Amino acid sequence: MTRTTPLAPEQVPAESKPTLDAFTRNLGFTPNMMAAFAQSPIAFNAWATLLGALSKALDVKTRDSIGLAVSEVNGCDYCLTVHSYTAQHMAKLPADDIILARKGQASDPKRDAALRFARKVIETRGKVDDADLSAVRDAGYTDANVMEIVALVAMYSLTNFFNNVFDPEKDFPAVAPAGSI
User: Fold this and answer.
1) 104-117: average pLDDT
2) Which residue of 6, 29, 64, 176 is most buried, as measured by CB atoms within 10 A?
3) What pTM value is reported for the model?
4) In what residue span(s) does the Carboxymuconolactone decarboxylase-like domain sit (predicted)?
């Protein structure tokens, strides 16, 4: 049951409109989450700025995989539909790798280390062990990369929490619910 109504185009606050219009142009439609999130220009534009900056972090397969792992831990079914779609169509991840990513794992050893670390960050609320940090560094990630992984975990958690609170209608292809894989 949705707990907020996405804004119709004429209802979008002026401060949110340029950002929402850019997403609509890039995606070819306006996702319900974004049309709902746009009600708060402050929160929506802050998230969009963070998303834009982090789109330069790591590689697209790792970013989308982290989104899947974090969304699975947070039980965000909306984000799982979005990240499953983008992982398949934009990152070109095979179906088996998408399932692995939801479990916080990857077939690629370096990406696997990033996902295991990201999952540990979200599960422990950032209170990782020295061994966790060593494992991701040993896989070839710099401290700057580790900071980017943490920032991605936080950004994906923001949208997970937003979608879990407001439960917008899903507008991406359905996937198995969180926890059922």
Assistant:
1) 98
2) 64
3) 0.93
4) 44-118
